[in-house]
Amino acid sequence: MPAGTATPRRKYEEILLLRYLAGLGADRSPAVLSSREVGVHLGVSQQAADRYLLALARDGFLERSLGGRKQSLTLKASGLDLLRREYHDLRRLFEGPARLRFTGSVVSGLGEGRYYLAQPGYTVQFAERLGYTPYPGTLNIQPGPPDLLRVSAVKDWKGLRIDGFSAAGRTFGGATCHAARLGGRPGHLITPDRTHHTDVVEFIAPEYLRERLSLKDGDPVDVELEES
Amino acid sequence: MPAGTATPRRKYEEILLLRYLAGLGADRSPAVLSSREVGVHLGVSQQAADRYLLALARDGFLERSLGGRKQSLTLKASGLDLLRREYHDLRRLFEGPARLRFTGSVVSGLGEGRYYLAQPGYTVQFAERLGYTPYPGTLNIQPGPPDLLRVSAVKDWKGLRIDGFSAAGRTFGGATCHAARLGGRPGHLITPDRTHHTDVVEFIAPEYLRERLSLKDGDPVDVELEES
DNA sequence: ATTACTAGGTATCGAGTAC
DNA sequence: TGTACTCGATACCTAGTAA
User: Fold this and answer.
1) pLDDT the model gives residue B8
2) Contacts of residue A187, Cβ cutoff 8 Å, sequence gap at least 6
3) Looking at CA atoms only, how far is residue B194 from chain A in angstroms?
4) Which residue in A151, A166, B74, B192 is a FRET match for A188, CA 20 to 30 A apart?
5) Of the options 2.40.30.30, 3.40.50.2000, 2.60.120.200, 1.10.10.10, the CATH number for the domain spanning A99-226
């Protein structure tokens, strides 16, 4: 299951346009460009450039405001994500699997992890794909502010899929796992598809790490992970 | 003058195909794939996949041998270069301008540098684009073997163009310059479009560096450069 | 000046099929 | 099995032009 071929693929010109906008810093402040200028840059007509802009805006990759003489173009998060995925794919080719090491502090979750991880629909998949049944509880780690951006890039890495399912009249979402070590102990970073928090990552392991490593809230921990 | 829009642009599917092959290590050993398998991976028909292979082979990006049952596909240097350029463009977006620092040893050239650098067709461009008229001679540096690969990546960096011209009944080729420091002294790495050697880089500077730094053949020197 | 529609020509696709 | 041609359908481009 190759990543990146599932979605109904964008046109190359559209990707080049997103790249161009990103290069102009349109993810931070709007780029003011006419469709003609875009066309010249891409080597296509004003009309074609306009169609690309229309399509990208329709699909939520950029935002346009046609207020004044020219339009203001702003790259949205999903547009930048698309480029980041492209970057990551190519980076892998030339630099090999990504590695990451960061320090974070232990924080308390809502205790939901215990309920979710105990679901048979999940545990059978864990046993099969991770090779163990995790202790029923996630250890939540808040990366230090300088690491947060790098940690968020992990979502683009290839990972082990845990599929969603339905049980007891409700649905349980899927997740992606990445092999990692926390304080030297092996386990996985787990990223639910529908994640609630953006500044915290969840770690699962075969053992009860809080006890094994004598961790309490606020304690610093080292996390290392390598792309599979 | 945006780099990457001059060439008559490849189709995205063709680039994805090159990426796929690179991912299979087809730059080192042939990948054995039918056009149907390629088509499945790209989400297009066998016929379309075949057309892409045909076009890429025609343009020298890959080599096919149709000997046995399936074809053997080998990625050629220009195919990998194309991907490397894509990678570099995206890397710049997310990581900022590239930097490089390497150590090499001083080697003797053929003395041609003196003749070329003295051509008025070049000197006016140097003065205008580099901000100085270089001492008429290049200092040749041979990077240490471990650095050679990284140094060769510099050709993908954005740089200052020096255009070719005709004079005295012959033609002088263009070149690309990258701002750099050699042993702490400012100057430029200069890469002729039609370069003769592959393991040596040439450095130009406002002053006679051999004398200024008391360099003789075989001496080690530090070179630092940052993308403009 | 813009953006963006319509019309008509071209390029590209997949199906069928020859080798 | 393969690769790769021809052919008719369609997707996409540019030009012209409306707003």
Assistant:
1) 64
2) A134, A180, A181, A203, A204, A205, A206, A209
3) 26
4) A166
5) 2.40.30.30
Tell me, what's the pLDDT at B56?
A: 95
Position A152 scores a pLDDT of 87
pLDDT score of B109 more than 80: no
Contact A208, A169 (CB under 8 A): no
B196 to A43, A200, B16, B170, B199: CA distances (angstroms): 33, 54, 32, 18, 10
- Which residues in chain A are contacts of B92 at CB distance < 8 A? 23
pLDDT-wise least confident of B51-55, B61-65, B69-73: B69-73
Is A12-94 CATH 3.10.20.30? no
Which residues of B touch chain A, with CB atoms under 8 Å apart?
2, 5, 9-12, 15-16, 19, 22-23, 41-43, 83-84, 86-87, 89-94
Per-residue confidence (pLDDT) for residue B155, from 0 to 100: 85
